[in-house]
Write a structure and sequence with these properties.
- This protein has one domain: Spore Coat Polysaccharide Biosynthesis Protein SpsA, Chain A.
- The protein is 35% helix and 25% strand.
- The protein has helices at residues 6-9, 51-61, 76-82, 86-94, 98-107, 127-132, 157-168, 230-236, 247-258, 275-287, 293-311; strands at residues 2-3, 18-24, 45-46, 49-50, 66-71, 115-120, 142-146, 150-153, 172-178, 188-196, 199-207, 218-226, 260-264, 268-271.
- Strands 1, 2, 5, 6, 7, 9, 10, 11, 12 and 13 form a 10-stranded mixed sheet that branches. A two-stranded antiparallel ribbon has the order 3-4. It has a two-stranded antiparallel ribbon with strand order 8-14.
- The longest helix is centred in the last third of the chain and has 19 residues, at 293-311.
- It is globular, with a radius of gyration of 21 Å.
Length: 312
């Protein structure tokens, strides 16, 4: 357990601007092989929108200025997706596909409006290592970390967190949600002190505890707003199991002096690092669009008939 004193967790921390977002996208996506053999997991679509696009749009809505993608040399297609492609837009317009060209231009990050940085994480040494790969490029102030395969639909989670961070009085803020008891052992779990609206002040975190030992069911998911000193703490931590550097260890190291809080976001979260989560996200989006009503109905009808047959 990573513990901080109640006094430290109530300490008032001066807010910092959040101008940088870090996107760790170097993972190999082994749970989706063979689909991810040639296509990065972050480019897998939820209907027609790649996971990375949701993350980019979320950061843009929060007013982020610098976008740092911590990638891998084998995943060059992510950079192609992120940046504008003037040649492709011209080809589409020559074919009269102006609406598609405009949609692609709007999705891509404009280098006139944002700083775009790609750095490489050549070895899979953990989330902490991935975040630290971005250290030399982060703007002064706090940083946001967005894990694209944690898809959160609804109000922009990072914008909610950035806004709350300015008055929360803590240095580190993590997105959190209530999970079922049988899911507790899959997450880092907050040890709460008090709750004030969406802000959950915490003594610390317990990494993947048994449900019987967990201090709560408030699970940490893939959005963070972290004091700029996170990079110094990442430099000092030791590798854990498998030689990986854990971001939670660095957060815990700084929490004692900066304070830690969870943030109960308002959106709906899907674990798109799993096949079940990806399917759930796809069905959720399909249900919001009348274009897919007939498809969903045609799938639901034989399923209902099968249930009736089994019951009989």
């Amino acid at each position: 357990m990573f513990d901080i004193s109640a006094q430290a967790s109530r300490a008032t921390h001066a807010p910092q601007p959040v101008r940088t977002a870090i996107f760790p996208v170097a993972g190999l996506g082994t749970r989706f092989l063979p689909a991810t053999k040639a296509t990065p997991k972050e480019l897998l679509p939820v209907i027609d929108t790649p996971l990375i696009q949701f993350a980019i749009d979320e950061a843009r809505a929060a007013g982020i200025e610098r976008f740092i993608f911590v990638s891998h040399p084998s995943k060059a297609s992510i950079e192609r997706h992120v940046r504008q492609d003037a040649n492709l837009a011209r080809q589409l317009r020559r074919k009269g596909k102006n609406q598609i060209a405009r949609k692609l231009e709007e999705a891509a990050l404009s280098e006139c409006e944002h700083d775009i940085v790609f750095v490489m994480q050549d070895e899979p040494l953990g989330l902490g290592h991935a975040v630290n790969c971005a250290a030399a490029h982060a703007l002064p102030g706090a940083v946001a970390v967005i894990l694209p395969d944690d898809l959160i639909l609804g109000k922009g989670c990072i914008k909610e967190m950035v806004d709350a961070y300015q008055t929360a009085g803590v240095g580190h803020m993590v997105a959190s949600m209530q999970v079922a008891s049988d899911k507790v052992s899959s997450y880092g779990i907050l040890d709460p002190i008090e709750t004030n609206g969406q802000i959950i002040r915490a003594r610390g975190m317990v990494e993947k505890p048994d449900a019987t030992d967990a201090p709560s069911r408030q699970a940490v998911v893939g959005r963070y707003v972290l004091d700029g000193s996170i990079f110094s703490d990442l430099d000092r931590i030791e590798p854990g199991a498998g030689g990986e550097y854990q971001l939670t260890d660095a957060i815990a190291a700084g929490a004692a002096r900066l304070g830690l809080a969870g943030f109960a976001f308002s959106g709906t979260r899907f674990d798109c690092g799993s096949k079940a989560g990806m399917l759930a996200a796809t069905l959720h989006r399909a249900q919001q669009d009348d274009e897919f009503a007939d498809v969903l109905a045609s799938v639901a009808a034989p399923m209902s008939a099968a249930k009736v047959t089994v019951a009989a």
